[in-house]
Design brief:
Layout: H1 3-25, E1 35-37, H2 38-47, H3 61-73, H4 88-100, H5 114-120, E2 126-128, E3 136-139, E4 142-145, H6 146-159, E5 165-167, E6 187-191, H7 197-209, E7 212-217, E8 227-232, H8 240-250, H9 272-277
Parallel strand pairs: 1-2
Antiparallel strand pairs: 3-4, 5-6, 6-8, 7-8
Helix pairs in contact: 2-8, 6-7
């Protein structure tokens, strides 16, 4: 009769030991990495370097901070600039990171692309809302990327007619008066000499509606004929000049060197991705 209590004690000890072992062996739950919204980062990287202050682009702070923290961890950005403002110092740091990956030219302009953004975030953050320029294609006789072409096709659908391109993208040194804005992706010029004033305004307005920073250029401004200059907002292949024009567009300027007030039709400023979601 004395055996049973001892047996029960032993069984109890085994049960407790097994439970303890199970608790120790149970895997720890993985901690989710923060998300970096690429659309928000691209918007800040266009606007912030063109600001006269260190204001933060609405909706971009957390994503930009995560990117800046990663640059700081690599010794490329001083802690004092880890502030959510994607200004010129952060642009320079990001350019240095791109060069460390072997990128050159417009691929190392400091404007984040999907691949570099994901590599920078390894074990630190995940990338959401990715933006891709796509492959280079020919449309209306000029070189564009697939994202820019899709935007123009949609604008033409809304207009009800096709336009004539006088210059496309990826045209380094092609037109000196363009000041490098066509060196990368997302840039195009539309011939407008034969358009009426009303049509010119309508084309500019429609391009803006689908995600372009667009302006009518006139002979009064410089040594060029009437044309419509457009930059696809947030195109990851933008040249530095195109990035600056995009930022100035957001800030209500005309995209020229004098940075005068925007003289184009007022619309709600959106990117191609925002337009598609609307």
């Amino acid at each position: 009769m004395k055996v049973w209590p001892k047996l029960l004690v032993k069984v109890g000890l085994l049960t407790a030991t097994a439970a303890t072992s199970f608790a120790v062996a149970a895997p720890l739950q993985a901690v989710a990495l923060p998300a970096v919204n690429m659309e928000a980062v691209l918007k800040a990287a266009q606007i912030d370097p063109r600001r006269a202050d260190s204001a933060i682009t609405p909706g971009a702070k957390d994503s930009v901070l995560a990117v800046e923290q990663a640059l700081n961890a690599k010794g490329l950005l001083a802690a004092q600039y880890v502030d959510g403002h994607f200004g010129t110092t952060t642009i320079t740091a990001y350019s240095q990171y791109q060069k460390s990956l072997g990128y050159t030219g417009i691929d190392a302009s400091g404007f984040p692309g999907k691949t570099s953004l994901e590599k920078l975030g390894t074990s630190r953050y995940t990338v959401t809302n990715p933006v891709s320029a796509g492959a280079r294609v020919t449309y209306h006789g000029e070189t564009l990327n697939t994202r820019t072409k899709a935007m123009l096709v949609e604008a033409e659908r809304l207009l009800g007619f096709q336009v004539t391109l006088s210059q496309g993208s990826y045209n380094p040194g092609g037109v000196g008066a363009s000041a490098g804005t066509h060196d990368g992706g997302g840039a195009m010029d539309i011939a407008a000499a034969s358009m009426s004033g009303t049509t010119r305004t309508n084309v500019v307005r429609t391009l803006r509606k689908v995600g372009f920073a667009a302006w009518l250029r006139t002979p009064d401004q410089a040594d060029w004929g009437y044309h419509i200059h457009a930059i696809a907002l947030a195109d990851p292949d933008q040249s530095s000049g195109a990035q600056h024009q995009s930022g100035d567009y957001y800030l209500g300027m005309n995209g020229l060197a004098g940075r005068d007030p925007d003289d184009g039709p007022a619309v709600t400023k959106v990117t191609w991705e925002e337009y598609q979601r609307a």
